[in-house]
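BUG: 3D viewer hangs when loading the predicted structure for this chain

Environment: internal workstation, default settings.
Expected: structure renders.
Actual: progress bar stalls at 90%.

Input used:
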Amino acid sequence: MIQRSHTKMARKPHVVVIGAGAFGGWTALYLLGRGARVTLLDAWGPGNSRASSGGETRVIRGTYGPKSPYTEMTARAFSLWDEHERKWKRRFLFRTGVLWMAASDEDSFERGSVEMLRAAKIKHQELLARDIAKRWPQINLDGVHWGIFEPESGYLVARTSCQAVMEAFRVQGGDYRPLAVLADELETGWKSLHLADGSTITGDKYVFACGPWLGKLFPKTVGGWVRPTKQDVFFFGTPAGIPMDDQSLPVWAEHRDRFRYGIPGNQGRGFKIADDTRGPTFDPTTGQRVVNPDSLRAIRGYLALRFPEMKNAPLLETRVCQYEQTPDSHFIIDRHPGAENIWLLGGGSGHGFKHGPLIGEMMSELVLGDKDPQPYFKLSRLGKRRPLGNWTAAAVDGRDPRMGSW
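Structure tokens produced before the viewer hung:
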């Protein structure tokens, strides 16, 4: 394990960030902006198809249930996304609105979300089913009692924004190097990291933002708490002349018998829909990204129920991504317990992407200021919880499955 250098750092500290996804890329950019010398490493590049930050779109929303820090964090993330859109003169955030459909007026998750949205000053509306029906007649509202609508939320382009962060990082003087695939765990006494060209690199501080690979690289510290799971995503073709795209419908979510969500008609890819239920354990490096036929049948049945015009819609594309969520849905943002100069950053899963610029801002302050993270991000909070081998999608030590995955 690399230990802290005992030499005084009058020079710029050299920080090596491993992983160029939403967490690692933004962290590298913010560290650079605060005066560090930064090297960013990734085996396959920003937004690659193996990464959890790959693909085309991610939802950005503030509805997270009661007592969640992520609603307030989302409010700050909105500001940072807007700031970088203006600075780079590019568009990443599409404010189509987000509609959360609820079956009961007494659901504590939805009711608690309203309170948190109000406190964070995220615009929102409480809509009865009849109001939803008037606004979006394309939706069949059987079983829906009311909903939360966030008019200024929506979706982010994923791969595109990861690549834009990389471009800005390099323009501002950051050093990007292709990383050799890390096949071995890193808790047995490594001294340097091997690059794809055969050379090695050593830094003063390290941030491992390795997404689904984090548990494999640090099995003793993280491996029991981060398990990549296979998640199937589907894109259906919309009927000609029927308003089913992102100009006519919001991003939506519903916790019925299972939790499902979708992004209508975005980027010419068709009607995106996915089931949030955790899939089987998945290897992000070697896993074959082929969807399960049973998942497709279940999604078709739901699609026919909730969006009747899509009953016979053709399947245009599929995608397999992965989640790497912690048991309590909180991120891991902490020093490695065996080395103060190594930071572990992960557990973002689907819901981490929207927080990318905020995480970068936070990490630059923590790493360069030698500050401590919030307690709910520390590894120690997981010590009293059971390992992931025993957890289920429905309830993990009381975790609401809707709190943080998309």
